[in-house]
Every structure is written in structure tokens, then in C-alpha cells.
Design a protein that fits this description.
Low-confidence stretches: 1-5
CATH architecture of the largest domain: 3-Layer(aba) Sandwich
Helix content: 40-55%
CATH topology of the largest domain: Beta-carbonic Anhydrase, Chain A
Strand content: 15-25%
Distance between the termini: 23 Å
Largest sheet: 6 strands, mixed
Mean pLDDT: 91
Number of helices: 12
Shape: globular
Number of domains: 2
Strand order of the largest sheet: 2-1-3-4-5-6
């Protein structure tokens, strides 16, 4: 059984790496279990809207954990600062394929476009925007406008929703029409029945089925925020990451502040890799993590054996080698402490196979 994140951060690097691989095996076993499969099927039958989240690589932003949504329901896209451009070829193709697949199954898509900040200390904000929350929010709105251009301005098939994430409390802040806001922190102690009417009031153009399927995320987040009140969370709210993950297929990493996850979407992968290395190095220098090493993990999902798996192997190896080159060039001292691992993930089972 992998140890909790609160204990894991202080262990020697090899023990931390072993624990992450053990966590991946545990996640695959759980994901493939009969109970988990039935739970996902039941959830999707009750809430069929496809949910896509665009978010920062920051290890504190874990939406399934913060909303108590079963793993495998939410499709994440992660990049430095939550910075995306839907014109990026690979990102645009993946996102469009996700939307079309849902539409072919008769499902609408809720596109949560997130930015994050810390209420208690602005310096704990988003490193991708130099902790400038207004800039991060403005970028999220720019993505929402692109989504309208791509999928329809009426937002009936794909609803882009700008959503803040306050990392001290793990609370969602939903931005509606006419500057209306739904801040989950303000609903602690209030009856959840009123959330339905409030959602309709601030999102009058949101289709009823999407609004119905957004509600469980809010109720789950409200319960999560409520349970965290009064809990000492230094490990969770401060940067304490010790792993850099590049690629896709990291949904087993549901530990706060463990890994910085970089999606292979943009035309410039060097910048987020360099930023992630800067954060890791700062964590070591501040004594937040041991300075005996950090993990670089590259992963690519595949659906089928044969050519699909072979392509995933080539892609993972390319990403791993590319990331190592960037880190050695920009952070030569840190690179000496790198533990590089390369893997592929069989997506139907979430099984992670090491290529080392």
C-alpha cells in the first residue's frame, strides 16, 4: 500500500519512486475492478455529460479529488499555467476528437477552463503567470472565446465555463454571465438544494442536462471544502513537488503536490519543462523535499497492442530524452540528481508499463 503524501515527501528518492509505481499498480487494480467499473457506468448513466478540464501542471489542482468524482470520469488537459491555444494542432485534434466522440454518443461536453490562486498568500499562486491571478483569469476567458469559435457560440453542445481554483481551500469559483460568481466557500453550511436555482440564475444559457451534471461536482467540492476546514494543510498548499511528468496518462497521480504534469500539447515544450525544473530545484533549496534526487517520468497512453503501442513507446522515449536535454541544458546541477523513467499506459486498463 503506497504511503500517504504527507509521509512520502520526506523519504529517500528511490523509496518515493517505488511508492509512485506501487500507486500506479494500485490504481490500475482499482480501476479495473468490478466495483469501480460499475461505479463509473452508473455515474455516466446518471450524468452522461462529457467533462473536460483544462488546468495548470501545478500538483495542487486535482479536480476529481476536489470534487469527489470517480476517477476516469473527467478528462484532463494540463500545461504550464493552464496556458493553451486551441489552435495548437495536437491539442486541437485531441480536444475535437473528445467532443466528437461524446457527440456521437449523444452526450454534450462541459469544458471547465481553470485558473488558480491562493487567498492566503499571492506568492503561492500560479508560477506560469508569475502569480498574477488577473492575467491567469484573462487567459482562461480567451480560451473560452476560442471554444465558442470552435464548437459554436450558442454553447449548446460544448459549454465553456471559466472556473477558479483556490488552492488553500480547494474551492471552485465559477464565473457566470454578467460577472456573476458562484464561490463554493460561500456555500459552506448552506443547504445544497439552493445550488440548483443559483446555477440556473448565473448560467441562464447553460443547457439543462449540462447544468444537471455540473451539480454533483459542486456538491462534491462543497463536501470536500467543508471537511478541510480546520485541517492543517501545509503539505498541500505549498509547492512540494519532487517529480516531473511529461506526456499523458497520469491519472493515478492523485496525490497533492507530488508531481508537475506537462501535457505534450504546445509547440514549445522546453518552457514548461524548464519551469518545472525551476520549481523542483527551489523546493530542494527551501528544504521542502530532500535534495537526493527527483523523478522524471515520461508516459504515453495507447489503446491497442501492435502499432499503437509501438507508437506510444517511441513517443514516450522522445519525450523523456527531450526533457532530459532541456533539464541538463538549463539546470545542469539539478540534472545530476535526475532519476529518469519511461513508460506507456494501456488506457483501457490504466496499466503503466515501464520501458526501462
Amino acid at each position: 500500500m503506497p504511503m500517504p503524501a504527507t509521509l512520502l515527501h520526506d523519504q529517500p528518492i528511490e523509496q518515493r519512486i517505488d511508492a509512485l509505481f506501487a500507486l500506479s499498480r494500485q490504481h490500475a487494480d482499482h480501476f479495473g475492478s468490478a466495483g469501480a467499473w460499475l461505479s463509473r457506468q452508473r455515474y455516466l448513466a446518471q450524468h452522461p455529460t462529457s467533462i473536460v478540464v483544462m488546468k495548470c501542471m501545478d500538483g495542487r489542482i486535482h479536480i476529481p479529488h476536489a470534487t469527489r468524482t470517480p476517477l476516469g470520469i473527467i478528462t484532463p488537459f494540463r500545461n504550464l499555467g493552464g496556458i493553451f491555444d486551441l489552435g495548437w494542432p495536437y491539442l486541437g485534434e485531441l480536444l475535437t476528437d473528445t467532443v466528437i466522440e461524446a457527440a456521437n454518443a449523444g452526450r454534450a461536453t462541459l469544458l471547465l477552463i481553470t485558473y488558480h490562486f491562493s487567498e492566503g498568500n499571492p506568492a503561492r499562486g500560479c508560477a506560469g503567470f508569475d502569480c498574477d491571478t488577473q492575467a491567469a483569469k484573462a487567459h482562461a476567458y480567451a480560451i473560452a472565446r476560442q471554444a465558442g469559435q470552435l464548437f459554436g457560440e450558442d454553447h449548446q453542445q460544448v459549454y465553456p465555463l471559466v472556473c477558479g481554483f483556490e488552492t488553500d481551500s480547494d474551492a471552485l469559483i465559477l464565473h457566470g454571465q454578467d460577472n456573476a460568481v458562484l464561490d463554493v466557500r460561500e456555500w459552506v453550511g448552506q443547504p445544497t438544494e439552493a445550488l440548483t436555482a443559483h446555477l440556473q440564475a448565473i448560467f441562464p444559457d447553460m443547457p439543462a442536462d449540462i447544468r444537471r451534471d455540473l451539480l454533483p461536482l459542486l456538491k462534491g467540492n462543497l463536501a470536500h471544502v467543508n471537511d478541510l476546514q480546520g485541517v492543517e494543510r501545509e503539505l498541500d498548499i505549498e509547492h512540494r513537488e519532487w517529480a516531473i511528468c511529461i506526456g499523458r496518462g497520469f491519472d493515478f497521480l492523485h496525490l497533492p503536490n507530488t508531481a508537475l504534469i506537462i501535457g505534450p500539447y504546445g509547440p514549445d515544450l522546453a518552457e514548461p519543462i524548464g519551469t518545472a525544473a525551476t520549481i523542483i530545484e527551489a523546493n530542494m533549496q527551501a528544504g521542502k523535499i530532500p535534495d537526493d534526487g527527483f523523478m522524471l517520468l515520461a508516459s504515453t497512453p495507447y489503446q491497442h497492442s501492435g502499432v499503437d503501442r509501438a507508437r506510444a513507446m517511441l513517443k514516450s522515449r522522445f519525450l523523456s530524452e527531450f526533457a532530459e536535454q532541456v533539464i541538463r541544458r538549463e539546470h545542469p546541477h539539478l540534472a545530476q540528481k535526475m532519476r529518469r523513467h519511461t513508460a506507456v499506459v494501456h488506457w483501457p486498463t490504466r496499466r503503466l508499463d515501464s520501458l526501462d
